[in-house]
Amino acid sequence: MMRDHYVFSNGRLKRKNNTVYFEDEKGNQIPLPIEKIRTIHLFGEIDLNSKLLTYLSQYGILLQFYNYYDFFAGTYYPRERKESGYVIVKQSEHYLDKYKRLYIAYQFLHGAVHHMLRNLRNYKAQTMEYIQDIEVLYDQLSKATTIQELMGREGQIRHIYYQAFNHIFKQDFVLEKREKNPPRDPINALISFGNTLMYRTVLSEIYKTPLNPTISYLHEPSTKRFSLSLDIAEIFKPLIVDPIIFSLINKKQLTKKHFDYLEGEICHLNEEGKKKFIMAWEERLKQTVKHRTLKRSTSYRYLIRLECYKLVKHVIDDEKYKPLKAWW
């Protein structure tokens, strides 16, 4: 089974004969089983060369780079892609047509809010007031006539959703407000870290389809941004990221000792905390459900790819897009 590999230390990635090694700053060499690796995530300061990149390309391995604050810095993706000029043209048509774009954007949020409500209903004794407030706004999403109006209502929903978090946590953790750049408390740090992993995972699945990741519908396309991954991730953040956060905190697998502060105010997971989160993350992506259409067990990761292919079918006018809404 293919898997992701995570590197937290500083060092060097290098090829020696037909083996790839990670060499840390002390000179210790760790061989990487590249025939079993899908993506390598680099959180440390890593040296590498074009010879290594060429070799990794032969195996179709992605490299994901993160900066000092654990924010995404860039991707190296092998040249081979399932590109389709026809799909790109049709993607663009659906962006340029106001009504077609609004339909897709609405569907992304429809799936996202469904999963937010699903999370809160697992704790409905503590969150019923928030559920009711979100349900009112949920019904109003379909009345939006512009992307800006849709995003505005989504912002209201997410504000209420995050307020409910404080009634879910069993530890002394508080989310006063959502702060992204930079996160200033442990919960914001967890949300940001989890969302970053989500965006990178969605992007890696988009690359396995003919979709162009820069053409998006809910988030405005811009230079140097894979905004389609942000769109599709809206559906999966509350389905995958948030339940991981609730579980790790309530089971006390993450406590305040797993967080550090940079420059006195930027909160982030320390290495031990990141490893715990990533272990839960990988387990969640491998978890399977019985797919109602395919009639077989399907992993959470593969559900993301299926969502991408559903969008392909929609833009080529093969099948109307409807978002994933967890039924299990």
Which features would summarize this protein structure in a list?
single chain, 328 residues, alpha/beta, Ribosomal Protein L15, Chain: K, domain 2, Four Helix Bundle (Hemerythrin (Met), subunit A), 2 domains, 4-stranded mixed beta sheet, globular
What is the strand and helix layout of this fold?
Layout: E1 3-7, E2 11-16, E3 19-24, E4 29-32, E5 37-42, E6 46-47, H1 50-58, E7 62-66, E8 72-76, H2 85-96, H3 98-121, H4 124-140, H5 147-165, H6 186-206, H7 227-250, E9 259-262, E10 266-269, H8 271-286, E11 288-290, E12 297-299, H9 300-315
Parallel strand pairs: 1-5, 2-6, 5-7
Antiparallel strand pairs: 2-3, 3-4, 7-8, 9-10, 11-12
Helix pairs in contact: 2-3, 3-4, 3-5, 3-7, 4-5, 6-7, 6-9, 7-8
